[in-house]
Amino acid sequence: MWLTFLCAVCLLPGSLALPLPKEAGGMNEEQWKQAQDYLKRFYPYDSKSKDMNSLEVKLKMMQKFFGLPVTGILNSRIIIIMRRPRCGIPDVPENPQGPKWTSSVVTYRIASYTRDLPRFQVDQIVAKAFQMWGKVIPLNFRKVERGIADIILRFAVGVHGDPYPFDGPGNTLAHAFFPGPGLGGDAHFDDDETWTDGRGRGINFLYTATHELGHSLGLPHSSNPKSVMYPTYMNENSEDFQLSWDDIRSIQKLYGNIYYFK
Ligand SMILES: [Zn+2]
Ligand SMILES: [Zn+2]
């Protein structure tokens, strides 16, 4: 009887899959697999829970972050968010109060460029992104052409010398490292995206650079959709935008208010 049952299973490839856990919420296997990868990648830390590897805990963290009902069960609203292009940095940082730069002048260098925009325009946009932050905090940014710099920006594809390979068009757009030596402060942009100056189809480089430089200065992600530090790309198709009050408050909490220092 038992043997007959086994053979029946063998004849039906694909039917051997284990039933999905309740957290999968009736989604299919493919969706559940993608959701697990996403949760492990963007919700790797949890200081409050002892069960850091539980997918249910991670799913609840994500639902809380995005202001959804905290059920611990996957649903289509979460899957829609998971499919948006986004920043590669986790939404919950390892240390809520991250490091910051301690000198008043921070240097940067653009080590490689994209072919999507003229070089001078990349320089202009990066300078503008720094100024978004620089005009509200007592830090000055100075571009250097070669050698060592605090923040090194570059465009790269696929595996590019750090543990976080890029993934082709869509999904992860860029990532950056919190302030520190070596890779610390550096910002990398996936050159498999189409970068724009805010016009036409593609990813707005000013918006993305401002977001990544927020990390380079020490900011984590914000769950306020108006914040430039919101983790998913909001298809900000404009040549100009402003920091939200949330962004200004967060960066001034780290570095102080410019009016008191200058
Ligand atoms: Zn980010
Ligand atoms: Zn990188």
From TrEMBL:
Sequence positions that bind Ca(2+) 2: D150, G184, D186
PROSITE patterns found in the cross-reference section: CYSTEINE_SWITCH
UniProt source species: Tupaia chinensis (Chinese tree shrew)
InterPro entries reported for this sequence: M10A_MMP, MetalloPept_cat_dom_sf, Pept_M10_metallopeptidase, Pept_M10A, Pept_M10A_Zn_BS, Peptidase_Metallo, Peptidoglycan-bd-like, PGBD-like_sf
SUPFAM superfamilies named in the record: Metalloproteases ('zincins'), catalytic domain, PGBD-like
GO CC annotations, alphabetized: extracellular matrix; extracellular space
Name of the protein described by the UniProt record: Matrilysin
Entry binding sites for Zn(2+) 2: C87, H211, H215, H221, M229
Subcellular location: Secreted, Extracellular space, Extracellular matrix
Active-site residue list: E212
First-listed, main subcellular location of the protein, grouped into a coarse class: secreted
Gene Ontology molecular function, alphabetical: metalloendopeptidase activity; zinc ion binding
Ligand binding (Ca(2+) 1): D116, D191, E193
Domain Peptidase metallopeptidase residue range list: 97-257
Cofactor note (record): Can bind about 5 Ca(2+) ions per subunit.
Matching CDD domains: ZnMc_MMP
Swiss-Prot/TrEMBL cofactor(s): Ca(2+); Zn(2+)
One Pfam short name: PG_binding_1
UniProt GO BP: collagen catabolic process; extracellular matrix organization; proteolysis
